[in-house]
Design goal:
single chain, alpha/beta, Rossmann fold, four-stranded antiparallel sheet, 12 strands, flat, binds zinc ion
Length: 584
């Protein structure tokens, strides 16, 4: 642990407390607490009697008495009356369990969590402590979560309470340790947030490191308070150490983390780190959001950026680097000299930049990654769709392969109505695009081929024709047809016609590393113009941060990302010596 951490005023909270939690002792301690209360507060005994304080036969007796009093009809000891009294006993026991003080406290704390009532939660905690209620992990985690959410206090206009609440969070944690309640990931993440809100990133980082001692795997959220704290306080060494720790723990930073590191590196003039982080953004995020684009613009507009770069370089080596890295990036560092020129621009249909006229490249997707993606999709679809999916796969083997798949429900929608005419146009346009003029595969829900417009004679005829030539598959009532069209398009490595941006829950299961790349290469979108249906083919270039062999960069932003508004790119160029040759 770094000496920096040891100087933290809160260090003792997290290091001097023994971390041994034998469960039996905890249980014994809790029973002792209740036994004492049984003698002193006799009223409470009655209230909490039917669960833990009386032997089970006493409980049965009490419940039978209650049963007899309320059920004169079943007074005789017939099997049905036994059954009835058993049910009543269960009901009473359930009610008593609900009324148990720890369960009442749990419910009340959950309500505080739901409505963000941190002050009320602290009052409940104090009350429970003075009443001797035994708190478990859930109680502590809710309390720590509330104490670690200072935004709740800010919105309630109680800024002066902030420091009090944060300190109380630490005090509650200390009590948790005294009570020998074992922490989990949520506990540590809340504590790291408390440390973060106290502007103590060293403490937040030390907590993440401690998670390993308890075999708790840190998550991306666990690192946030430390990483953002170091970045905010312009402490590059701390931030880079957190970054290395994340990589070593197989936690992949996402855009907010990479963007914060990029801003820090830019602010402290670490040009090498800025270069490295742009590459990491390229690899994991591919296209940047507006806040990150602003950070990148600030860097290229800075004096430090205009000062870095090789005036001369080995052209062959740079070209070789681009080939070795699969295209779109050479990785040889900053090239060129002088001020950078920044323009927000667009890219035409052929991949040529509107501003500098450079042509962007198309980076092939890795065949191995495609295969892995296809098998994980098959596994997920089989789990979600179950038996029906097996039938679909058999059907595909019989009628495939296809050059294109159509998401019929999406393509047939015209002004909120389903139009077979529109779908038919799309089907025959896609057939024209096929090298062998093969019919595309149309996926439609059974409802669409049996109900509503499907009953009109012309449409019935059309459905019949498509079915007979093995181009139409009707998905069962109980299944989500998204699985079918996506699976078929991935299975046949073919085009997929849909305007569905594939961002909902189902598609999130596929992850955000490979799926966006697959989509970019295979999705055909459509629009309706005065000239009828227009198809928008996948771009002949890759929508990813690209570095060209003269050192210029093209950075796609997420601004404008549909058919009407073309994607906005950041074109970054600088004057270069065109007579460059094989030396630095
Ligand atoms: Zn350009």
């Amino acid at each position: 642990m770094s000496s920096l951490v040891k100087t933290s005023p809160f260090f003792l909270y997290f290091t001097k407390i023994p971390w041994v939690f034998p469960c039996q002792n905890t249980l014994r301690a809790s029973l002792q607490t209740y036994s004492c209360r049984s003698i002193v507060f006799s009223k409470n005994i009655l209230k909490y009697s039917c669960n833990s304080y009386f032997p089970i036969h006493t409980v049965r007796y009490l419940c039978n008495v209650a049963s007899a009093a309320t059920s004169s009809v079943h007074a005789s000891s017939t099997p049905s009356s036994n059954k009835g009294s058993y049910k009543l006993r269960k009901k009473l026991m359930k009610k008593d369990s609900r009324d148990a003080p720890e369960n009442v406290l749990r419910y009340k704390l959950d309500m505080c969590s739901k409505y963000g009532q941190v002050v009320k939660a602290l009052e409940l905690y104090d009350e429970a402590r003075s009443d001797g209620v035994q708190l478990i992990l859930h109680h502590y985690n809710v309390l720590l979560y509330l104490c670690s959410s200072p935004s709740l206090l800010e919105t309630s206009g109680a800024n002066n309470l902030l420091s009090v609440v944060l300190s109380r969070g630490l005090e509650i944690y200390q009590q948790m340790i005294t009570d020998k309640v074992s922490p989990n990931e949520a506990t540590f993440t809340s504590l790291a947030r408390i440390a973060g809100a106290m502007d103590d990133p060293e403490m937040a980082f030390s907590l993440v490191k401690q998670m390993e001692d308890y075999h708790i795997a840190p998550r991306l959220r666990s690192y946030g308070p430390a990483l953002f704290g170091f970045c905010r306080k312009l402490m590059p060494e701390g931030a880079y150490e957190v970054d290395s720790h994340m990589l070593a723990s197989a936690v992949e930073p996402e855009e907010p983390e990479l963007s914060a590191l990029l801003k820090l590196s830019s602010d402290v003039k670490r040009a090498d780190k800025v270069y490295e982080l742009l590459h990491r953004l390229r690899r994991t995020v591919r296209q940047v959001s507006e806040p990150t684009a602003k950070v990148i613009e600030d860097w290229f507009n800075s004096e430090s950026a205009s000062e870095v770069g090789k005036k001369h370089w080995d052209v062959d080596k740079v070209r070789e680097g681009i080939v070795r890295r699969g295209g779109g990036w050479h990785g040889e560092g900053w090239l060129g000299s002088g001020k950078w020129r920044l323009v927000r621009t667009g890219i035409d249909d052929n991949g040529v930049c509107h501003s500098c006229a450079q042509k962007l490249v198309c980076i092939d997707i890795d065949p191995k990654e495609t295969e892995d993606f296809a098998s994980s999709l098959t596994k997920l679809a089989n789990q979600r769709v179950k038996d029906n999916f097996g039938k679909f796969r058999v059907w595909l083997e019989k009628h495939g392969p296809f050059d294109a798949v159509i998401d019929g429900a999406n393509v047939g929608i015209e002004n909120d109505h389903f139009s077979f005419i529109q779908l038919k146009r799309a089907v025959y346009r896609m057939r024209e695009l096929s090298p062998s003029k093969k019919m595309p595969l149309i996926i439609l829900h059974t409802r669409r081929v049996t109900e509503g417009p499907a009953r009109y004679p012309n449409n019935m005829k059309l459905i019949e024709i498509w079915k007979n030539c093995g181009a139409l598959y009707a998905t069962p009532y109980t299944s989500n047809d998204d699985w079918y069209w996506l699976y078929a398009a991935v299975r046949f490595k073919c085009l997929l016609l849909t305007n569905d941006e594939m961002r909902d829950h189902l598609f999130q299961l596929l992850g955000n590393t490979f799926f966006p790349q697959w989509k970019e290469k295979h999705q055909v979108r459509w629009s309706i113009s005065r000239n009828g249906l227009k198809l928008h083919m996948p771009p002949p270039y890759s929508i990813v941060i690209q570095e060209s062999e003269n050192g210029s960069l093209h950075i796609p932003t997420t601004t404008g990302d549909d058919i009407e508004t073309p994607k906005q790119w950041l074109c970054v160029t600088r004057p270069t010596n065109t007579s460059k040759s094989g030396f630095e």
